[in-house]
Amino acid sequence: MKRITMLLILIGLVLLVSLPVFAGGQNEAEAPAEETAVMEEGVGPTNSNPLSDLRVRQAIAYAIDMDTIAETMFDGMVLPATGRVPDGPMKAPGLNRYAYDPDKSRALLKAANWDPNYKLDLGYYYGDQMTVDLMTAIQAYLSDVGIKMSFRKLEGDVGAQLNSVPTDPANGPSAVEIDLGYGGHAALALQEYFNVYKTGKSAQYPSDPKMDALIDAINATADPVELKKALFEIEKYEVDNLAAYSLYYMPMFVYESIDLNRNGEIYGNPQYNYDWNIQNWTMKPESNGKMVLQTNGGPIEFFQNPWENPGIWISNKVLYDRLIACDGALTPTHGQMADYELSSDGMTLKFTMKDGVKWHDGAAVTVDDVQFSIEKIILAPTAHKVLLSTFNSIKGAEEFIAGTADHISGINTDGNTITIEMAKLDPNILLTFTQFAILPEKYLADADPLKMLQSPFFQHPVGSGPYKIGKVEMNDYLVMVPNEDYYDGVPKIDEIQCYPSFDSDPNVVKNATAGILDYGFSKNPSEVSSLRALDNIKLETVDVPYTRILWFYQYPKK
Amino acid sequence: MNGTKKKITRLEKKFDRILMREDTGLIKKKKGSRAFRKLMSNRLAVAGIIIVSVILLAAVFAPLICRYDPLKLDLRNKLQKPSIVHLLGTDQLGRDIFARIVYGGRVSILVGMGSALTSAVVGVAIGAYTGYKGGLLDNIMLRLSEIVMAFPQIILVLLLVTIMGQGLRNLIIIFTLTGWGGIYRMTRAQMLSLREEEYVQALRAFGLNSFAIAYKHMLPNAVGPIVVNITLSTAMFILYEAALSFLGLGVPLNISTWGNIVNIAQDLRYLQFFWWLWVPGAIVISLFVLGVNFIGDGLRDSADPMQQG
Amino acid sequence: MLTYTLRRLLILIPMLLFLSFLIYLGLELTPGDAVSYMISPERYATMDPAELEAVREALGLSDPFLIRYVKWLGGVIKGDFGYSLQSGVPIKDIVFDRLPATLELSAGAILISTIFGIFFGTISALKRGSIGDNALTLAGMLGVSVPRFIFGLLAILLFTFHLKWLPVGGRLRPGYEGFMDRLPHLIMPTLVLSSTLIAGVMRYSRASMLDAMNRDFMKTARSKGLPEWRVNFVHGLRVSLIPVIVLIAFRLPILLGGTVIIEQVFQWPGIGNEFIGAVRSRNYPIVMMIAFFTTFAVLFVSFLIDLFTALLDPRVKLD
Known about the structure:
Strand order of the largest sheet of chain A: 1-5-21-4-2-3
Largest sheet of chain A: 6 strands, mixed
Largest interface: A-B, 47 and 55 residues
Helix content of chain B: over 70%
Oligomer: heterotrimer
CATH class of chain B: Mainly Alpha
Structural class of chain A: alpha+beta
Strand content of chain A: 15-25%
Number of domains of chain B: 1
Order of helices and strands of chain B: HHHHHHHHHHHHHH
Helix content of chain A: 25-40%
Number of helices of chain A: 17
Radius of gyration of chain B: 25 Å
Distance between the termini of chain B: 53 Å
Structural class of chain B: mainly alpha
């Protein structure tokens, strides 16, 4: 016994030692990172980080064959990007595509004196297989031109690891560890795409006066023609300068069971609120004659708030209502809960509440509720940036936030009208009110804006939308039933049933196959491929401003 | 003079022993120890040894048996069915699945065996000494192990993964931290019963230090159950690696491991329509764990003459 | 006896204290906190550090580590187990909400695995060496060797998609909340969970039965001329069951954790699911409470088992 156990242990040890030794192929050895970049005028590195050299960034862009990746890995479901803004009227013409050209990439690296032992560290935060596959592919393409790259999923303080801004926005050093980042940017307003480069706001892009000027230009006007001109300029500057490399545009996929009928109502960006008129939808009745719509996004522990991601959760879409309606591309069209009037200079917005708009408890929605909602959410730090930037531009907002005023002086109510006066122009003021859910003052008056979700309200929210809460079994299901008082007509579908899920539901395909998912949306191409194969599901592709990006962290490293 | 005398005694002894063996009819089967023979007569254990050796050798000599680099992408040839070109087909990135499994075995086995061995080293080192010495240290370690073992292991592992982060080395450390308790208690129990043996008392009387007594003289007598435990925990850790991959908390997805390969089955499309992406991996994990369990069982039976069957 | 019991009970207290401190410390060392999870990465990046600090302050996360621990401990002693950082729901409510789901699952699995495990194990032992014994042993080995989530996925593939017999997952459907309505949801997860458990119980009861069969009292019983089945089942099984029962009892609380994977596969809203969610979102109070409770349960059960075996086995001395 003793001899064989000794033998076994010996064999075990030998194998153990040999495994990592032989495990070549899988882990490349760490190489010391040394800077050998030589300064050249104009295109050379601007600091000790090789990524500050435009030629290196270009080499990376040229090395990645996004066309093949989109066609094979994504089954043609995503569109290789040219610049940050998706195709459409706001897209600048003639932007450089950086089409796959490994030879050019190698030449650029040579010109930039790229150190083949320098290893780039890429961080990302998505947990799905597709992302890992994409990273693996990018790693392979980069290694093909002689760039070493390793990637890892960031854990813990993801925001800080990605986006910590250096104390000195001109010279750094970088406040993050990674060299490259991969992530998505979904813009509600196109300005959001570029505002991130503003001096003092970016973890990646060292202060650039020209960029700052271009950013000011896109935020200074609400005039469509001028805005377009300013956007074209900044789009071109971003692409030429490769502040970041936009990889691909991701459409949204709305999936619906064949039993669901929208009766002609429009499709649109499903992550936000648009005029989809769910009250007119119908389902094929069940055997008992009831129309039941089954979907995901039910609450797990509490109802998600409607001010951070205004339209991701179906419960937020149908429980609450908004002042202005917009079309599928989120362009404001007409008044929803209120009629509105925007002065020609864009500085005064006046709402007149429609008659018969009621909370689910029967009380009328008043202008006081609107004022209350603005004054509450302006203090909630997690609110959507577009909402906050509108609210912060209202006259008297600063004093209110600082606590020196009880109310925002720019907001005045009179009977059933409410007037909002702006201190400075906000091009997205109407957009904000298409997404901003009005909340009932009487239930939330005492809630601490810093931890609103802990309010009992979010266990059983009361809104003014077409559906109200029927029954909640946290983490089991949510049933929503028609709001019989809804001013736009009583909804036809008798019940919306939601099973609990986070915003990315891992069980979409399983549940759709099992026939318990009648509506939802996905931005996961692998999920969509599976859904496409199902007979009981129809798919609608919606173009939305959602770009997946490779970020270059260009500050010098610590 | 003295030397010759000794020689004679030794020779005489030898003759005596041979004579005794002849009497009991043992002389013909001289090869290997009793335990080894018993292990070899256990058909399942032999099957286990064969399975495990084949997989182990394949993993160690991966470059010799794989035609493809497990990391080489071929996007245009993704999701190919098994064929002569790709024995087990290609995955969603066009990587050769056979190569991925064979290379993945290196990491999975490293995690499994490595964690089993390190937790055994820790458990035995502590168990042998404190078991022999007793006292306050023994008491503290006993309570500590109770705490570790009281935690449902998967919960503890999850907790530690979030605290320490994902990664190969961290995984082995975590498995060691959560896995040393069992083997520690077993070693300690063995030492407790050995402590009262006469030879130990004798050694103590000779004034040997505790370390020498515990590690050099007592430990070798407790080695049987320890080896059984190492074998069985190897199997357990390989399964844990797979389970953690399933939860997305195992070895980072870009490193091929058996768990990461099989993990693709979570995607219903691959589960239903592209069986070759996950079935071979699932079979290899199960076979390897099965083989290790067979060996462990065989060892247990051969090490413990009390238990028949 | 009384002193033994008391001593064992008293020693639980420092152990639990130490343990809770360890978990708290561990969570403290984890990168990120609840705030960084409550806010999406893109949003988080653009927040003022002062704003973040305000949220932390409001959630009571900005106190020094030790003070928070002492506060937490004080709450627990007073029976106040704290609130979920995200929703403000009392943890007691969350745990009591999830516990029935997990208990349902584990109770079913324990029941099935106990009955079948003991049955197969005993048969196996009585017919040692037969084809049936070998087949059962092999099946048992397979049961512990195939990863559990593979079992689960295969079951879904077979029973939901091919045969269309059982629902894909979840626990309740609106309007169908009686036990009989819930039963179809319960079948697959319970069976998959039992499959691994059966193997363990079977092996244990087989070994234990074999052990019993070699004992002197069996020979005595046989020599008294009792019929073979009576010897085996009345005398043998009764004795061999004790260690098996101990094993099962010991597993009860461990099952709380053991269901983690199954709950994920079948979207089962139990404690395991809750724990994973809380760990991922750094919802400390929930992580603490679940970890603490399960450990307490295990320690307590092991104390009961010790006591029980001590009472049964006259060889174990109590002092």
